[in-house]
Amino acid sequence: MEITQSAYRDWWRFDLEGLPADLIRRGLAEPDPTQKHGLRLLIEDYPYANDGLLIWSALETLVRTYVNYYYPEASLVQYDTELQACYNEFINVGHADVSHADWWPKLSTPEDLTSFLTTILWIVTAQHAALNFGQYHYGGYIPVRPPYMRRLVPNQGNANFLADPQGKTFQHGDDTEIIEAFYKFSMEIKKIEKEIERRNADPKLSNRCGPGIAPYELLLPSSGPGVTGRGVPNSISI
Q: What is the DSSP string of the chain?
């Protein structure tokens, strides 16, 4: 445990947890503005990076649309007291042991907020799936797997809770731009799934296709937990 905590304190940095920055930090990619995702992979047949960059890009596009819609100016980010309080709690309470570090990014502009939210979404969906869903031999054994919730947390203070506990009639109002952004994100995730399946069937990609090689499905959006299942972040599918 002490070794793990030491490694966390010395190595973990939130500003480098986004996929592009993480790949560069680990020496697996180099910055390259001419490439689609702004970097060049040093190992071309690297399923985690190749599939992950597709999902990272889709998440980033969704978040940027959302942020630019509600926070079109830097002042709106800077003077949103609830947003700034949330970010302060994230650093000083959620990561109190490294809160003093000088690498924490500022939250002053829409671009800062886009980067922060995209990184959070990446960590709790695709990255988590890729790192943990493959541990099927342990996680698949029900007695050692803690319960987990797959539905919305009930809000009993809401007058509509008893009539509609699952929130099935929840409406987004007139924010058509945001609704359209989520629709485009959903379509992009479906395209990503097709692309991952195409890659898994490509005999030239020897790290994910061939005799005795299991297809890389840990970042396949429609998959469930486990290497032999259809593997990944159901939580990002809309």
A: -HHHHHHHHHH--GGG-SHHHHHHHTTSEEE-TTSTTSEEESSSS-HHHHHHHHHHHHHHHHHHHHHHHH--SHHHHHT-HHHHHHHHHHHHTTTGGGTT-TTPPP--SHHHHHHHHHHHHHIIIIIHHHHHTT-HHHHTSGGGS-----SPPP-TTSTTTTT-TT-TT---TT-HHHHHHHHHHHHHHHHHHHHHHHHHT-TT-TTTSSTTPPP--TT-TT--SSTTTT-S-GGG--
